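Q: Here's a chain of 364 amino acids. Please give me its 3D structure as tokens.
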Amino acid sequence: MTNKERKNKFRRILLTGGGTGGSIISLLAIKERLEQDGDYQFLWIGTRYGVEKDIIKNKDIEFYGIVSGKLRRYFDWKNFIDPFKILASFFQSLFFLWKWKPNLILSTGSFVSVPVAWAGWLLRVPVLIHQQDIRPGLANKLMYPVAAKVTVTFKESVSDYGNKAVWTGNPVRNILINKDQKQKLNISLKDKLPVVLIVGGGTGSLAINKLVVSGIDELLDTCQVVHITGKDKMNSAHLRQHKKDKYFCYEFLEPGQMMAILQVANVVVSRAGLGLLTELSYTAKPSIIIPIPDSHQEDNVRILQKNKASVILDQTQISAIGLVDKINELLNNEQLRNRLSENMGKVMKRRGSENVVEVIKELI
């Protein structure tokens, strides 16, 4: 088959995003669902040095990294440089779009996506953006004028985008739904000891990592811990040597293994990114959520508070011992765990991937 024949056979979807693991995983979830229904080719435009390139490796996606600039609503010396980066990324995007000729551009919100979306609008390529968090991010606000449709996780977000909005829920990976596809858990966990998963989101959390370091002695007296630190967020080699039969530390885990750990965890401690919150809802896991202070994540946790679906802690108020006490309180209270589990399972609208794919098919 010639390249021209191949292009005519396959519909081409350009995926763009990066910076946070949650948005990347959602794009991969949509890709998985699309592949079940037809023949598609995928190209990914992301940042040159972000986590997205590592996450999508071996996913049969061609990757291009472009210069990435950011508009900040506070003073930073980079504000004088980044407008030139954004302009450069716009012309890079124009070149890739002209060369690859996609049928659709799909973004889950990221600054690297903004010049791609605007270049797509100039070349008359339909743009679909997905709003994960309840609060619209600046990147999505900038892409909204050129978007054909905006899919949203929460019904409350529909009013932010008017007649372009479609309430779909958040896309999730097939492995969350088809549990028989899960990878084998390659960690030597003890059968009769509770498992606590601690994760700071796709890029990790230095603040949560520090709490773990300070409280690890007391925590390992009552449970075993799987700790996802994030890439380069903490040198935890000394912790690996400390009670290593009950403490398992990783910078990052492949999606299949992460799902396997989620399934066996008794309690999950995490940030309030929508990617992980969606997974917690699908797996109905009792959780302790520590949102990033003064961020969109505080809006996300209000949904959890409204539904009494999780224990919410304030990062500025919690100490290491305080976190350990909350974890032990939850481990020792089966009734509370069951109630949180039931409520968490009801937080998210189901069939997010399928609903987004229906919108994509309408556009192409």
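Q: Can you summarize the key feature?
A: The first strand starts at residue 11 and ends at 16.
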